[in-house]
Design brief:
- This protein is an alpha+beta fold.
- It has 2 domains: 106 residues, no CATH class; 98 residues, Aminopeptidase.
- It is 28% helix and 30% strand.
- It has an 11-stranded mixed sheet with strand order 1-2-3-4-11-5-10-9-8-7-6, with helices on both faces.
């Protein structure tokens, strides 16, 4: 099993746990998976597998317990090594994606884009505006879904919210989270016009925030193509499974 994949998986699991802990619903780390018995924020899984075939028994047993508890209306599982067949447990395959790795590069200035200023978020109000933009909403008056990223995350020195401003408006951004010797790049958002240049800016900003460390993450579709254009290499596949609890 590739060390690059393992580090990307661990980084992602710790990121999921960080978000859940910020919401006062911490998960649990076991030998072969990260697990959360609570309803988790939008887009986040209840389990992330931390190993491949050697962990199948523990992983399936833990998931069966979640199902038997019946406390969740639905749950999702990130099958990090594509080794689980969860269809017999009532899951459906939600999507497939690719783990990514980008070797460390010397810090460099972000390529200039006319009218764009890059920054990192430090204030609660700006984080709320960042999340509004991340949600694809025009302004704070829009019907914002339940917050995922509370202001307490701004106190985490291993975490950076990256923003690209056009005037006072946030038009693109990403999150970088450091675990051990790697930095996860996730939640990248950008306007369709010049999306690849905004992607490049997010990658450079993450590298400048945590210099000398490789970047990891996962993407699919157009985002995977843009990540590959920015020097990420594909290091392994993953799957996300989802299950609705008919008794919930």
């Amino acid at each position: 099993m590739s060390s690059k994949v393992q580090q990307a998986v661990r980084n992602n699991a710790y990121w999921c746990d960080t978000v859940c802990r910020a919401q006062s619903i911490p998960g649990e780390f076991h030998n072969h998976l990260w697990l959360n018995h609570h309803p988790v924020p939008r887009f986040y899984p209840n389990a992330v597998t931390l190993s491949g075939a050697e962990g199948i028994v523990e992983q399936q047993t833990a998931l069966q317990v979640l199902i038997t508890e019946g406390a969740l209306s639905g749950l999702a599982v990130k099958d990090s090594f594509c080794t689980l067949d969860l269809a017999p447990l009532g899951f459906q395959l939600l999507f497939e994606a690719t783990w990514l790795w980008r070797a460390p590069a010397p810090p460099e200035p972000i390529a200039e884009m006319i009218g764009i200023q890059w920054a990192t978020i430090h204030q609660s109000l700006e984080l709320a505006r960042w999340e509004t933009a991340w949600n694809g909403l025009a302004d704070e008056a829009s019907a914002l879904p339940a917050r995922i990223f509370p202001a307490s995350l701004l106190d985490d020195e291993d975490l950076v919210f990256i923003a690209a401003y056009r005037g006072r408006h946030i038009v693109a951004g990403a999150i970088a989270n450091r675990t051990g010797e790697v930095v996860g790049l996730s939640n990248v958002f950008a306007p369709p016009v010049e999306a690849s240049r905004f992607w490049a800016g997010c990658v450079t900003a993450a590298g400048r925030a945590f210099p000398g460390l490789p970047l990891v993450g996962y993407e699919r579709g157009e985002e995977l193509i843009m990540a590959r254009q920015q020097g990420f290499e594909a290091v392994g596949p993953l799957r996300v499974w989802a299950r609705e609890n008919s008794a919930g």
